[in-house]
Amino acid sequence: MEVVLTLAVLSFACIGLLGLLSAGLGNFRTAMNGVTGSQIFQRVVADLQQTEFDTLLAGGAETTNDFFLLPERDFDEQGNEIAHAAAGSPNPQEMRRTLYRVRTRVSKPGAGNIADQSDSGFTSIPTGDEASRFQLRDTVFIAIQIANNPGNRELPADNRMLWSASAAARQSCPLVTYTAVVTRNGHR
Q1: Distance between CA atoms of residues 142 and 29, nearest Å
Q2: Does the pTM exceed 0.85?
Q3: Beta partners for 105?
Q4: Which domain holds residue 111?
Q5: How many Å separate Cα 171 from the centre of its chain?
Q6: In sequence order, what are the residues at sequence separation of 6 or more whose Cβ sits closer than 8 angstroms to the Cβ of residue 65?
Q7: CB–CB of 108/114 below 8 Å?
Q8: Would you state the torsion angle of the CA atoms of residues 104, 58, 56, 37, taken in this order, to the nearest 10 degrees?
Q9: Predicted local distance difference test score (pLDDT) of residue 51
Q10: For the chain (length 188 residues), average pLDDT per consecutive 10?
Q11: Are 133 and 141 in contact (CB under 8 A)?
Q12: Contact 149, 99 (CB under 8 A)
């Protein structure tokens, strides 16, 4: 009777521990995704900061009046960038390694004078004396979206050239958006 009672208590405790284990693993996975996403964000921003400013401004394929997109980038589960062998479509083995897809949207620099400020959603960063205060600034605002997208599903973009968070949620594809500012170093 004592052995049966001990086994019952142990099995009850093990069932509780197994329930905690699955919750703990889910929290661990979420934390690792956050850490890896932060590392990817830091790498993308560092790459953009090291890019020649005029090259950065000329790098967008899709464009609107206010924004342009840089080419999407793929990363593996450890945050290492996956360099695709050919300029065309990547091979299936590369796509199986892809866990994170990154979309980078860059704003165009602010308007050249006060009258133009109302036409653009972006403002120049004021510097210098009053006469040059609202000259074209060498500053761009960047939105970096990181999608945990192991199935490499196509994510629709909204009218602001960003992936739609509601569509990503429907596809169980966690999506994080970071922002940064990149400025030309030095004067023209």
Answers
A1: 27
A2: no
A3: 69, 143
A4: 2-183
A5: 17
A6: 108, 120
A7: no
A8: 10
A9: 86
A10: 92 88 87 90 92 80 80 89 65 69 84 46 54 60 89 81 82 86 67
A11: no
A12: yes
In a domain, 87, yes or no: yes
C-alpha gyration radius of the chain: 24
Q: How far apart are CA 152 and CA 85, in angstroms?
A: 18
Write out the two tokens for 131.
């006469």
In sign, the C-alpha dihedral spanning 72, 76, 80, 83 is negative
Q: In what order do the strands lie in the sheet with 67-75?
A: 67-75, 100-107, 139-148, 175-183
Backbone angles phi, psi at 157, to 5 degrees: -105, 155
Domain-located, residue 114 = yes
Residue with tokens 């602001």: 160
Q: Using CA atoms in the order 18, 24, 30, 35, what is the torsion angle rounded to 10 degrees?
A: -140
Res 186: pLDDT? 57
Within a domain: residue 188?
no
Residue 5 is predicted with a pLDDT of: 92
Give the total number of structural domains in the chain.
Answer: 1
Residues 6+ apart with CB under 8 A from 43: 79, 81
Instruction: Tell me what pLDDT residue 102 has.
Output: 92
Rounded CA-CA distance 61/69 in Å is 6
